Amino acid sequence: MKNTEYIAKVLVSEEQIKARVSEMAAEVNAHYREVGADELIVIGILRGAVVLLVDLIRELDMPLKLDFMAISSYGGGTTSSGNVRVLKDAAEDIRGKHVLIVEDIVDTGNTLQCLLQLLQAREPASLKVCALLDKPARRKVDIKADFSGFDIPDEFVVGYGLDFNSLYRDLPFIGVLKPEYYAK
Length: 184
Ligand code: 5GP
Known about the structure:
The protein is of the alpha/beta class and 184 residues long. It has helices at residues 14-34, 50-57, 110-120, 179-182, and strands at 7-12, 40-46, 64-73, 84-88, 98-106, 126-134, 147-151, 174-177. Helix content is 24%, strand content 30%. Strands 4-3-2-5-6-7 form a six-stranded mixed sheet. A two-stranded antiparallel sheet has the order 1-8. It binds guanosine-5'-monophosphate.
């Protein structure tokens, strides 16, 4: 059992995440069946999307290749800027392939917009996004994940892959830290 005394509140429980990830997997399966995709390339965005990725892919029912990208957004603090830098690029050639990006959260939308532009230029057959969380109140660019788990309020959350100072990714739920832990 994990010690979670640093959590002020749970926004999305483990049970809610499990149920919604299964629903999202069903939506993804239905979509790619409909478009007749015989293979999918799933690109997980390191490191926040890893927990969603491993849960999601085990419920997908088409042949898929797993790939990863790591990107960093310029600018400090807890808000991303309009620029992203590719720290690790995908290994697969995505030209003519169906590609699903798996992201942890869409916040301002800057990261996703840059990523979509970058990958679209490689001419995939299709490019879709699956994200666990969405913070619509903070959006700066008009963009939305094709498969989205939960809308959450404007709070900085941790857990299920999301970190603060690289900690808390292992929590099975999405929660908000007690203020004193954000100050650390
Ligand atoms: P955007 O470019 O949409 O503003 O931000 C996207 C990235 O910022 C996410 O992939 C995530 O890494 C980080 N981020 C945004 N909101 C949160 C949050 O509430 N908690 C954590 N841990 N990361 C966040």
